[in-house]
């Protein structure tokens, strides 16, 4: 017996709907993938890339992981970046974090079992740096404001990592159009904010 029938049923309805609106929809989508955007976002189920920026399949190349990290040691993320920039020639790379990120919260708390602990290690460093900057130092129960500030700082930190990557530098040196963006999403109102805009 087929498992999760409700999901297959929803899929069938969606496929019918798309074809109802545009009989050539899937045919065209098969032909070409040329998204202008690469989205690097959190794996959190409440932050689905296409939905919150209103884009259709084919319009955004997506990479998601816990706490939207760009780690040069992460082969998956590096391969995505290489493909997106060198082959798809995306014009924008968007790192999108969100307030209330569980990954950031975990990095503020007690040590966990690996692999989660290993994954969170760049965030532990960020949490430590922010503590030593004099913000909320010595707090055993970090405030929500501090947590949310760390969510923003994490985005800035990932954009800085992106800036330093050879794949990004090489694209710029050869004159390819490529902009990097740091955004944060608010679960409370569903709105995005550009952290790099004044
Ligand atoms: Zn998250």
Question: Characteristics of this structure?
Answer:
198 residues; Beta-carbonic Anhydrase, Chain A; 2 domains
Description:
The chain is an alpha/beta fold and 198 residues long. It folds into two domains: 1-32, no CATH class; 33-194, Carbonic anhydrase (Beta-carbonic Anhydrase, Chain A). It contains eight helices and five strands. It has helices at 5-21, 25-31, 49-52, 75-87, 102-107, 116-132, 144-164, 166-173; strands at residues 37-42, 60-65, 92-98, 179-186, 191-194. A hairpin with a 4-residue loop joins strand 4 (179-186) and strand 5. Helix 6 (116-132) packs across helix 7. Zinc ion binds at residues 42, 44, 67, 98, 101-103.
CATH topology of the largest domain: Beta-carbonic Anhydrase, Chain A
Number of helices: 8
**Total count of strands:** 5
Cross-sheet strand order for the largest sheet: 2-1-3-4-5
Low-confidence spans: none
Could you name the CATH class of the largest domain?
Answer: Alpha Beta
Structural domain tally: 2
Query: Strand percentage, roughly?
Result: 15-25%
**Major sheet details:** 5 strands, mixed
By CATH's scheme, which homologous superfamily of the largest domain applies?
Carbonic anhydrase
Looking at the structure, what is the overall shape? globular
Q: Which structural class do the helices and strands define?
A: alpha/beta
SSE string: HHEHEHEHHHHEE
């Amino acid at each position: 017996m087929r498992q999760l029938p409700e999901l297959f049923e929803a899929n069938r309805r969606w496929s019918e709907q798309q074809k109802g609106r545009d009989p050539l929809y899937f045919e065209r989508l098969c032909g070409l993938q040329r998204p202008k955007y690469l989205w690097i976002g959190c794996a959190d189920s409440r932050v689905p890339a296409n939905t919150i920026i209103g884009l259709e399949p084919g319009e955004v190349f997506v990479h998601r992981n816990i706490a939207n990290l760009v780690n040069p040691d992460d082969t998956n993320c590096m391969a995505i970046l290489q493909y997106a920039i060198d082959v798809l020639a995306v014009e924008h790379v968007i790192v999108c974090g969100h307030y209330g990120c569980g990954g950031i919260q975990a990095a503020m708390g007690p040590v966990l079992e690996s692999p989660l602990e290993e994954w969170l290690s760049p965030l532990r460093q960020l949490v430590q740096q922010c503590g030593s900057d004099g913000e909320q130092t010595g707090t055993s129960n970090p405030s929500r404001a501090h947590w949310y500030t760390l969510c923003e700082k994490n985005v800035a930190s990932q954009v800085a990592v992106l800036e330093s990557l050879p794949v990004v530098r090489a694209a710029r040196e050869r004159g390819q159009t490529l902009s990097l963006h740091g955004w944060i999403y608010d679960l409370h109102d569903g709105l995005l904010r550009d952290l790099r805009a004044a």
